[in-house]
Amino acid sequence: MAWTVLIASGVLEAVWATALGMSQGFRRPGPTLVFLVTSTLSMAGLSYAMTSLPTGSAYAVWVGIGTVLTVAVAAVRGQEKLTPLRGVLLAGLIGCVIGLKAVS
């Protein structure tokens, strides 16, 4: 259960990071509201997961999922260029997240 919550929290991290960028410094109310709600839920899920998972591993997995998904969303939206090298590095990050789950 903790891993499921942690993964969902990582997905929410990507949502709030994207919304934060779209809020234009908290000047746009819609993205600002999405940021506030999803960041709260993401942190709550991370906190819950840390009650039964090692803190370092849980945090690394949470950040890794959020990072990869945030870059993917930005690439799909045309805000960032996904070069082959960036793809390899992101794949490596995914591999590290999977590895941390495997050894935890």
TrEMBL record:
Recorded GO MF terms: transmembrane transporter activity
Location(s), subcellular: Cell membrane
Domain of life: Bacteria
Record membrane topology: Multi-pass membrane protein
Stretches that traverse the bilayer: 33-51, 58-78
Presence of the UniProt keyword Transport in the record: yes
Keywords (A to Z) from UniProt: Cell membrane, Membrane, Transmembrane, Transmembrane helix, Transport
Gene Ontology CC entries for this record: plasma membrane
Family statement drawn from the similarity comment of this UniProt entry: Belongs to the drug/metabolite transporter (DMT) superfamily. Small multidrug resistance (SMR) (TC 2.A.7.1) family.
PANTHER family given in the database record: GUANIDINIUM EXPORTER, SMR FAMILY PROTON-DEPENDENT DRUG EFFLUX TRANSPORTER SUGE
Protein's name in the database: Quaternary ammonium compound-resistance protein SugE
